[in-house]
Amino acid sequence: MGLTSTLITSFIVSTTPALNADTEINKLLITSYIREEKRELTTLETEYNNLVKEVELFRTLGDDWDAYGAIQPKEVSIYDAISFLNILKEKSIAKPEVFPKTTGGTSIYWRNNNNYIEVSFKEEGTFSFFYDFEYDVYGEIDLNINNQLPDKLIYAINFIHRKVSSVKITDLIKTTETQQFLAV
């Protein structure tokens, strides 16, 4: 991504006559923009790499890790959670939090005020998710980890991180497309 941006920027700056008078200023502005873009990407990658390390530590938990009879996290749930985190990282989706389930699974979640999304991994190659928002509760089970992320999950993550906050929820629900999207 950074290389492509750099190549495009170099091409634009070197081939556009109008930029010649302010070439140095434009190069500085564009270089600054590219560095900022790269820094954000690097930060997200680092955050996800740290999450993967955290999930890998779940392997060190034994049975009764919570002193209330919890089951040791299953290797398959750890593997699937890491695979899912890598999918999220590739799509530059906001970083979740992670935790081991007392039932031997692994979960990731996002929380914002009264809104909550959880994705859980227990059985090989599958995941389940649910979200609980002020206006809606929804979930799906036994989804294939190798398939495309469900639209409702992506919408929920974007909503919780306010990427759709410029529109009131009541306005979203009024649109036909959103009504179909939110239909259970």
How are the strands of the largest sheet arranged? 1-2-3-4-5
What's the total count of β strands?
A: 5
In helices, the fraction of residues equals: 40-55%
Look at the structure and give the mean pLDDT. Answer: 77
**Helix count, per DSSP?**
6
Q: Which stretches are poorly predicted, pLDDT < 50 over at least 5 residues?
A: 1-13, 164-184
Biggest sheet architecture: 5 strands, antiparallel
- The tally of domains stands at 1
Strand content: 15-25%
Element pattern in H and E: HHHEEEEEHHH
Task: Decide which structural class fits the backbone.
Answer: alpha+beta
Description:
The protein is of the alpha+beta class and 184 residues long. It has one domain (2-182). It has six helices and five strands; from the N terminus they run αααβββββααα. A five-stranded antiparallel β-sheet has the order 1-2-3-4-5. α2 packs antiparallel against α3. The protein is globular, with a radius of gyration of 21 Å.
Describe the structure concisely for a colleague.
This protein is an alpha+beta fold. Helix content is 47%, strand content 19%.
Task: Outline the secondary-structure elements.
Blueprint lengths: L1 H14 L7 H34 L18 H16 L6 E4 L5 E7 L2 E7 L4 E8 L2 E9 L6 H10 L8 H6 L1 H7 L2
Antiparallel strand pairs: 1-2, 2-3, 3-4, 4-5
Helix pairs in contact: 1-2, 2-3
Supply the key terms.
184 residues, alpha+beta, five-stranded antiparallel β-sheet, 47% helix, globular, disordered C terminus
